């Protein structure tokens, strides 16, 4: 299939890394003077340098912004059969890995569509599968993923480190190379791609000075379109992400450091030489001096669509590396490619052509070996001998070509078998996905039916709710009336409660007064009892004294007294006895009267106390009855209010 050739220069984007916290602590200045969409001005010594690129990102540009500007224009070209390559070039630590792989390792639960930290590779995989899903039903597709690393001119397979990769020229396509034994994993979605990236990153070589290896990730997309006449067209599109090793050592000035850099970064130097040779339009371009440029020959001045992201630090501490990166990006912008669609012929046609070529070469070898001898002159003999030597050399060369073609045929056969197997796996995956989609669609229809039923039920419930709302509003109005009445009853209950509290306080105060009066009366009675007891003791003592006095009286013999004494004396004695006796009897009578009077008074006091106690008890009973009536009335009011 012939395609109209269109020249397309390499697009160059620059992405500055903002100052780091340690730069702020050191009070490091920025080298960026001015930025616009396509223009960058930096301060380099006493002068300012101005650069023009396809796009200049600001320091705070998001991953999504970079992806939409750099990768999105390439995605639609992959199913069409184009090879698209994205380089990341710059000093170590300026954001190459961050740009491609993101801030951190992505797990299975991550949101690939909305996570702002995801890098360009996973974003491209997500959109690529979305684009392939839009292909027509007559087109089959398969996506294979490879992950390799180049360290000191040694190519390593990061998906299977046991494989020994060998780079050789494609005998059927000039300027292209093949990697023998390279692992190509068939992937069906972005999760498979993420798993491969995680597995490969564990084997990537790093040293103490930053990235020392080149990393190449390739998405190989094979599409097979079937036509109505029975023919088919196979196209192979590729999307390469190339993270180049750190370029900071290229500015070292000492000879020893330059020698160390040449030993460890030969491919990076050759990459720069290739860019410069193409920019200067030299006849010889040193692609074969490095495996990196040999593998990516299609992307540098070849038939691929290529762009470059140049990353640099905005810190003035790295001004030399920054200028070197921008100068290199400026040169790369002058490289022009000629993108072409990669159309593969049928394997049967390719095998037939290879077989015909092998048979032709074998016939030439047989004819050269079976030539008949004849007599010739010495001069002709020498000439024929020389021709024979030349023919032998040609035979050896042809035999070598035959072996290479046979080996390439076997390799192509293996690749074709792998491709067919990948197509089959992808087809089975798509068929299974279609079955799941149909099942989901059936579930969706059932869900829609249920949703419709629920919607009808919901409308009915809304109507019922509106009716209930009307009833509630009517009920609320009635409740408002009841509430006002209830408020009035509550106010009355509050008044009654206040009255009850006052009655309780009055009753409590009266009871306290009665208790105090009772205590005072009891104390008074105790004092009276003590007084009476003291009087009784005095009376008993008086009686005892009287009895003792009477006992001391002597019996008088009146006759003897009369006889012995004169009448006056006798009369005086009798009078004394009479007076003494009368006085004693009078004292006893007075004491009895006092006792009787006290008993009578005590009886009166007891009667008064008894009467007062009865009155107090009666008053308390009345208060209790009144309090009970008030409580009953309050309870009835509350019940009637509820």
TrEMBL record:
<dbReference type="GO" id="GO:0051231">
    <property type="term" value="P:spindle elongation"/>
</dbReference>
<keyword id="KW-0175">Coiled coil</keyword>
<dbReference type="GO" id="GO:0090307">
    <property type="term" value="P:mitotic spindle assembly"/>
</dbReference>
<dbReference type="GO" id="GO:0005634">
    <property type="term" value="C:nucleus"/>
</dbReference>
<feature type="coiled-coil region">
    <location>
        <begin position="344"/>
        <end position="371"/>
    </location>
</feature>
<feature type="domain" description="Kinesin motor">
    <location>
        <begin position="9"/>
        <end position="335"/>
    </location>
</feature>
<dbReference type="GO" id="GO:0072686">
    <property type="term" value="C:mitotic spindle"/>
</dbReference>
<keyword id="KW-0206">Cytoskeleton</keyword>
<dbReference type="GO" id="GO:0005524">
    <property type="term" value="F:ATP binding"/>
</dbReference>
<protein>
    <submittedName>
        <fullName>Bipolar kinesin KRP-130-like Protein</fullName>
    </submittedName>
</protein>
<keyword id="KW-0505">Motor protein</keyword>
<dbReference type="InterPro" id="IPR001752">
    <property type="entry name" value="Kinesin_motor_dom"/>
</dbReference>
<feature type="coiled-coil region">
    <location>
        <begin position="588"/>
        <end position="623"/>
    </location>
</feature>
<dbReference type="GO" id="GO:0007018">
    <property type="term" value="P:microtubule-based movement"/>
</dbReference>
<dbReference type="GO" id="GO:0005876">
    <property type="term" value="C:spindle microtubule"/>
</dbReference>
<dbReference type="GO" id="GO:0008574">
    <property type="term" value="F:plus-end-directed microtubule motor activity"/>
</dbReference>
<comment type="similarity">
    <text>Belongs to the TRAFAC class myosin-kinesin ATPase superfamily. Kinesin family. KIN-5/BimC subfamily.</text>
</comment>
<dbReference type="GO" id="GO:0008017">
    <property type="term" value="F:microtubule binding"/>
</dbReference>
<dbReference type="InterPro" id="IPR036961">
    <property type="entry name" value="Kinesin_motor_dom_sf"/>
</dbReference>
<keyword id="KW-0547">Nucleotide-binding</keyword>
<feature type="coiled-coil region">
    <location>
        <begin position="395"/>
        <end position="475"/>
    </location>
</feature>
<dbReference type="InterPro" id="IPR027417">
    <property type="entry name" value="P-loop_NTPase"/>
</dbReference>
<keyword id="KW-0067">ATP-binding</keyword>
<keyword id="KW-0963">Cytoplasm</keyword>
<feature type="binding site">
    <location>
        <begin position="90"/>
        <end position="97"/>
    </location>
    <ligand>
        <name>ATP</name>
    </ligand>
</feature>
<keyword id="KW-0493">Microtubule</keyword>
<dbReference type="InterPro" id="IPR047149">
    <property type="entry name" value="KIF11-like"/>
</dbReference>
<dbReference type="Pfam" id="PF00225">
    <property type="entry name" value="Kinesin"/>
</dbReference>
């Amino acid at each position: 299939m012939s395609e109209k050739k269109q020249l397309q220069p390499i697009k160059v984007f620059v992405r500055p890394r903002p100052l780091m916290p340690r730069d702020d602590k050191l009070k490091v200045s920025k080298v960026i003077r001015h930025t616009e969409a396509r223009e960058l001005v930096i301060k380099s010594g006493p002068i300012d340098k101005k650069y023009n690129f396809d796009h200049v990102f600001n320091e705070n540009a998001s991953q999504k912004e970079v992806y939409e500007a750099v990768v999105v224009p390439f995605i639609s070209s992959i199913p069409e059969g184009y090879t698209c390559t994205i380089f990341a070039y710059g000093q170590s630590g300026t954001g190459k890995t961050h740009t491609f792989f993101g801030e951190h390792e992505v797990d299975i639960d991550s949101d690939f569509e909305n996570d702002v930290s995801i890098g360009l590779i996973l974003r491209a995989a997500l959109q690529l599968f979305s684009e392939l899903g839009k292909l027509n039903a007559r087109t089959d597709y398969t996506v294979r993923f490879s992950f390799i690393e180049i360290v000191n001119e040694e190519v390593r397979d990061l998906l299977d480190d046991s494989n020994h990769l060998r780079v050789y020229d494609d005998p059927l396509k000039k300027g292209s190379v093949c990697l023998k034994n390279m692992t190509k994993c068939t992937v069906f979605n972005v999760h498979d791609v993420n798993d491969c990236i995680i597995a490969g990153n564990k084997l990537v070589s790093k040293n103490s000075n930053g990235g020392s290896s080149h990393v190449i990730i390739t998405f190989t997309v094979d599409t097979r379109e079937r036509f109505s006449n029975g023919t088919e067209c196979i196209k192979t599109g590729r999307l390469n992400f190339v993270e180049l090793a750190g370029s900071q050592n290229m500015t070292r000035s000492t000879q020893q450091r330059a020698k160390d850099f040449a030993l460890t970064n030969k491919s990076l130097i050759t990459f720069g030489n290739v860019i410069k040779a193409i920019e200067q339009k030299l006849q010889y371009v040193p692609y074969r001096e490095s495996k990196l440029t040999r593998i990516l020959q299609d992307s540098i001045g070849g038939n691929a669509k290529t762009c470059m992201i140049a990353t640099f630090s905005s810190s003035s501490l790295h001004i030399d590396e920054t200028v070197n990166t921008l100068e290199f990006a400026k040169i790369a912008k002058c490289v022009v490619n000629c993108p072409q669609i990669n159309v593969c012929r049928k394997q049967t046609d390719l095998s037939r052509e290879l077989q015909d070529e092998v048979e032709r070469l074998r016939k030439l070898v047989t004819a050269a070996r079976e030539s008949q001898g004849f007599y010739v002159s010495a001069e002709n003999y020498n000439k024929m001998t020389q021709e024979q030597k030349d023919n032998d050399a040609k035979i050896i060369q042809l035999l070598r070509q035959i072996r290479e073609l046979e080996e390439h045929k076997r390799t192509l056969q293996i690749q074709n078998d792998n491709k067919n197997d990948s197509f089959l796996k992808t087809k089975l995956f798509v068929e299974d996905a279609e079955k799941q989609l149909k099942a989901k669609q059936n579930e969706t229809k059932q869900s829609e039916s249920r949703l419709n039923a629920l919607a009808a039920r919901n409308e009915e419930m809304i109507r019922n709710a509106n009716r209930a709302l009307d009833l509630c509003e009517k009920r609320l109005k009635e409740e408002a009336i009841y509430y006002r009445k209830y408020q009035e009853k509550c106010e009355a209950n509050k008044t009654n409660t206040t009255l009850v509290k006052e009655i309780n306080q009055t009753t409590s105060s009266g009871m306290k007064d009665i208790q105090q009066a009772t205590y005072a009366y009891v104390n008074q009675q105790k004092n009276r009892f003590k007084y009476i007891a003291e009087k009784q003791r005095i009376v008993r003592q008086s009686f005892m004294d009287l009895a003792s006095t009477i006992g001391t009286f002597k019996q008088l013999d009146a006759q003897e007294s009369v006889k012995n004494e004169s009448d006056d004396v006798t009369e005086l004695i009798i009078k004394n006895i009479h007076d003494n006796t009368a006085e004693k009897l009078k004292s006893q009578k007075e004491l009895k009267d006092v006792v009787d009077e006290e008993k009578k008074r005590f009886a009166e006091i007891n009667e008064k106390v008894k009467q007062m106690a009865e009155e107090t008890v009666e008053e308390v009973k009345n208060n209790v009855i009144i309090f009970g009536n008030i409580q009953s009335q309050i309870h009835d009011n509350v019940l009637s209010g509820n």
